[in-house]
Amino acid sequence: MNCILLPKNATSITEPTQITHIKEVLKSQVGDSLIIGEIGGKIGKATITSIDDHEVQLRDVTLDKNPPAKLNLTVVLALPRPKVLRRLIMDMTSLGVNKLIIVNSYRSQKSYWQSPLLNRMDEFVFEGLQQAIDTVPMLVEFKKLFKPFIEDEFPALLEDGEQSRAVIAHPYAMQSWKSYLADAKNKYRMPKVLCIGAEGGWIDYEVDLLCQYGCTSVSLGERILRTETVVNVLLGDWLKA
Amino acid sequence: MNCILLPKNATSITEPTQITHIKEVLKSQVGDSLIIGEIGGKIGKATITSIDDHEVQLRDVTLDKNPPAKLNLTVVLALPRPKVLRRLIMDMTSLGVNKLIIVNSYRSQKSYWQSPLLNRMDEFVFEGLQQAIDTVPMLVEFKKLFKPFIEDEFPALLEDGEQSRAVIAHPYAMQSWKSYLADAKNKYRMPKVLCIGAEGGWIDYEVDLLCQYGCTSVSLGERILRTETVVNVLLGDWLKA
């Protein structure tokens, strides 16, 4: 938690995890300064005027810095095992992904859709924002039907209809991400959509359908990586673009 | 577990986690083929001849493929909270890091060094290898004294004594990783050593000492990322180099 995210016009902190962080990790005292952000707004500072178990009061709230820019990127993610979802959401948020669309895939087990963790997206996004010192939540949507989503909604994500502005990470793709990236950078543009499979990857049918709707299939090489690792390895290239 | 890693000349599997994986995840039957690797050796296949709770027997063991190349990279990591160590070790292993040196740092709490997880490095490396279909373990060393390690042993990691062949990830560095990387790539060489801090980063004294011994300090930008995220974001650039 590198900043404390607060609702608009807040002059005190009542969220238990934030209070615990201030007391136990930061070990802040009355008179200390805190890095704060306004949800959806600017970043700044405030001074602590009182601390107890239920509330931390603030004065001199100054919000004067814009949050870091978001990546011009929508991630389409096959629903993974719920236990990895928290870290995935946090990482994507902290890396600045604009929008996340979680879709069903052949290898997403039906039980995953029943997980109570799916109702906790806002909380995981919030954690990612407070990690990265950002204030603007990543948008998260769920699409339980893969084919209708790809056929009816996916093309609009590419908007300008340009080819190859969407990539699908697939360990067995012929083209390497490296060569794709070199080409994209030469053209001064990164893909606007990145599709990432869950454990076990996409099945051929899914890869084919995505490619039919404008995706280019790319591989990171021989090593098979965990979903979380792939996400960070790939998103790093938008961060550095 | 994308391959089952076995000792040299093994014709059966007796490791409980591997047997559970074969039975419950792969749902393999007698006659099915398995992707296997010989620890430190080649990768190949074998056919299952019997499965019970304590042993999976194999025939036609064929080891004919070299493991993927390791990255020419040593990571120097400040000892993080033990609970993140397993994933960090797995990820670095699966991404192909050659050697990991875990050092003490100002922000590594003393209690971290007492964690029983520090005795389980081999197990975490093994998991990373089986994830990535690799067979050659990442070397892991511990250095409990930061200053003597940097002064006496760090320079040898750079071997050829070239400047700027080591980088330290530091959120407040002046130079961006992107500009450093562009320069490194123009010279057809990536740094041989990457130093990554734990939660809260390196303190100034540590950054200064590392820089004095040949490191260049680089930043990934405004966003403050978790250690695990930084590791994957940066290592991706060696993977793609």
UniProtKB/TrEMBL annotation, chains A, B:
GO terms for biological process: rRNA base methylation. This is Ribosomal RNA small subunit methyltransferase E. Its EC number is 2.1.1.193. Pfam families: Methyltrans_RNA, PUA_4. One of its GO terms (cellular component) is cytoplasm. GO terms for molecular function: rRNA (uridine-N3-)-methyltransferase activity. Keywords: Cytoplasm, Methyltransferase, rRNA processing, S-adenosyl-L-methionine, Transferase. It is found in: Cytoplasm. The keyword S-adenosyl-L-methionine applies. Signal peptide: none annotated. PANTHER family: 16S RRNA (URACIL(1498)-N(3))-METHYLTRANSFERASE, RIBOSOMAL RNA SMALL SUBUNIT METHYLTRANSFERASE E. Belongs to the RNA methyltransferase RsmE family.
